[in-house]
Amino acid sequence: DIQMTQSPSFLSASVGDRVTITCRASQSISSDLNWYQQKPGKAPDLLIYAASSLQSGVPSRFRGSGAGTDFTLSISNLQPEDFGSYYCQQSYSVPLTFGGGTKVDIK
Amino acid sequence: EVQLLESGGGSGQPGGSLRLSCAASGFSFSSYAMSWVRQAPGKGLEWVSTITGSLGTTYYADSVKGRFTISRDNAKNTLYLQMNSLRGEDTAVYYCAKDQWTGASNFNFASWGQGTLVAVSS
């Protein structure tokens, strides 16, 4: 099974900051990496697919990058509505696996 | 507009059974692979199972293989998850999710239902 390791598990940042979340796969997954945002009590939303493609309707301040084993989700100009948890997920092979999540708190 | 509405959650006993349903609307249901993803209280996301659109090929996480069965009724636009031999560790919110594109499963979960809670306890 492919293990997905996310870091940090928690971060606190101010409005306007740029934040970066990393996700590392235990083996190469090409660009088969998705990012989701989840607000408390809600279902996740797809933000980024295929490592760097922005899902329709997602603000351009979200950016994904990486390939192989190392991936990054960046949020520039952090907004109050960006609080929540973020998860990476590999779609390369079954069993599909998620990272442990990163909780983003707005200072 | 894509809508996914789960039902069937509730309390179950260890060793017991539950069947979850997910009613879909707003898209050509039979053309998309569908999945179940769960989230234990206060924990992260865990993929459970996927079924492709037309051929109905199924995939399972090891943690549920042999106990859970995913199925679909394309005439009723409904996805199911039959959960047998329930364990305490199956306690979670169960989400149904729709693939991003038609055809073979791409395993990108583009739309999600609101979730249904399954609580397994004696």
Describe the structure.
The complex is a heterodimer of chains A (107) and B (122). Chain A contains no helices and eleven strands. In chain A, the strands form two sheets. In chain A, strands 2, 4, 5, 6, 9, 10 and 11 form a seven-stranded mixed β-sheet that branches. By secondary structure, chain A is mainly beta. Chain A has strands at 4-7, 10-13, 19-25, 33-38, 45-49, 53-54, 62-67, 70-75, 84-90, 97-98, 102-106. Chain B is mainly β. In chain B, a hairpin with a 5-residue loop joins strand 4 and strand 5 (45-51). The model of chain B has no long low-confidence stretch (mean pLDDT 96). The chains are: A mainly beta (107), B mainly beta (122). The interface between A and B is medium-sized, with 24 and 19 residues.
Summary, kept brief:
The complex is a heterodimer of chains A (107) and B (122). By secondary structure, chain A is mainly beta. Chain A has no helices and eleven strands.
Spans of at least 5 consecutive residues with low confidence of chain A? none
Q: Rg of chain B, please?
A: 13 Å
Elements of chain B, N to C (H/E):
EEEEEEEEEEE
Distance between the termini of chain A: 37 Å
The proportion of strand residues of chain A reads over 45%
| Distance, first to last CA of chain B | 40 Å
- Give the biggest sheet of chain B: 7 strands, mixed
Helix/strand structural class of chain B: mainly beta
Q: Report mean pLDDT of chain A, rounded to a whole number.
A: 97
Quaternary state of this entry equals: heterodimer
Task: Classify the helix fraction of chain B into a percent range.
Answer: under 10%
Overall SS class of chain A: mainly beta
Number of strands of chain A: 11
Largest interface: A-B, 24 and 19 residues
**Low-confidence runs of chain B:** none
How many distinct helices of chain B? 0
Radius of gyration of chain A: 13 Å
The total beta strand count of chain B reads: 11
Shape designation of chain B: globular
Q: How much strand of chain B? A: over 45%
